[in-house]
Design a protein that fits this description.
The protein is globular, with a radius of gyration of 18 Å. It is built from 11 helices and 13 strands. By secondary structure, the chain is of the alpha/beta class.
Length: about 300
């Protein structure tokens, strides 16, 4: 399936974005999907609702959850019927052809969630039903069951070229679903694109939320258009992440509150979790519902 899209440039994009910002207060709540299986395990400690330390154990959260550890989750964690709503699309834009998977409503969606993979990944990672404990299958089902759209794209790099491609993709689908909040979830190095989108004067304020999953920091966010628009930010991080140490991400999280007390930011620390743990363990429904509930 192929769509033609003429990239409008900044001027045209501003017109598109301005027409969409009126729907900035989102009252939608995602309906449950296998919440008993995907809810966080025990909370070991917390600082209100903004910072939580979650109990994570390989024996329970990988070996008891997967038929084949880290390769195939047990069948009760997934519902494969959602594949009928999944398309592999090549979108022609002014910055190139963007291959991506789309699940759900490509027009008039109520909410859009986008997953940007990390180093060595591809669009296929974000629609793999059976890896990462079935968590990608869950977000696909959540979007499909709630009149939403889920996108998992390829992109050329984690720099300005990749950011331009994702920008074009978001503008395309935002134009087709002008009232939909756009949640962008970034795994690992994909976080570079999250932060670049946050600084974009058109895309930044249009976002409904950013999710950094085992990712990196960017001090520039504190002066970005998304920051001034109070776009909610969620951080999920493993305490034993050896790629991006948790201490740096926690310091950055606290710096947001120091600059803007009451800013909508949340942090979940998965105790003993590693680099990929947040992709497996983040409770999509809980965190997205929190984002949708934030006044803008």
């Amino acid at each position: 399936m192929r769509f033609a899209f003429s990239y409008a440039g900044l001027g045209g994009a501003v017109v598109i974005a301005a027409s969409m910002l009126a729907g900035a207060v989102h009252a939608q709540t995602l309906k449950p999907f296998k919440d008993d299986l995907f809810a966080y395990p025990a909370i070991l400690s917390s600082d209100g609702d903004a910072y939580r330390v979650v109990d994570y154990r390989k024996e329970r959260d990988i070996h008891a959850r997967d038929e084949v550890p880290e390769r195939r989750v047990r069948k009760n964690f997934v519902s494969m019927g959602v594949r009928r709503q999944q398309e592999d699309i090549a979108l022609d834009t002014g910055v190139g052809t963007i291959r991506h998977f789309a699940v759900g409503k490509t027009d008039n969606a109520a909410v859009i969630t986008v997953y940007l993979h990390g180093q060595g990944g591809s669009r296929k990672q974000g629609v793999d039903d059976v890896t990462f404990g079935g968590n990608f299958n869950r977000i696909k089902n959540l979007m499909a069951a709630n009149r939403g759209l889920y996108l998992s794209p390829d992109f050329s790099d984690f720099e300005d070229g990749g950011a331009a491609e994702i920008r074009a993709l978001l503008l395309h689908y935002a134009g087709r679903s002008p009232q939909a909040p756009i949640i962008v979830a970034c795994g690992s190095m994909g976080g570079r694109l999250c932060w670049k989108l946050a600084r974009d004067p058109v895309i930044g304020p249009r976002l409904g939320g950013l999710m950094l999953l085992g990712s990196l920091t960017d001090e520039g966010f504190l002066n970005s258009s998304a920051f001034w628009a109070k776009v909610p930010v969620f951080f999920g991080h493993g305490s034993l992440d050896n790629v991006f140490p948790v201490e740096g991400q926690e310091r950055f999280f606290r710096s947001i509150a120091q600059k803007a007390p009451g800013y909508p930011a949340r942090f979940v620390r998965f105790e003993t979790g590693s680099h990929g743990t947040p992709i497996r363990m983040t409770d999509w429904r809980s965190e997205i519902n929190w984002m949708l509930a934030q006044p803008r």
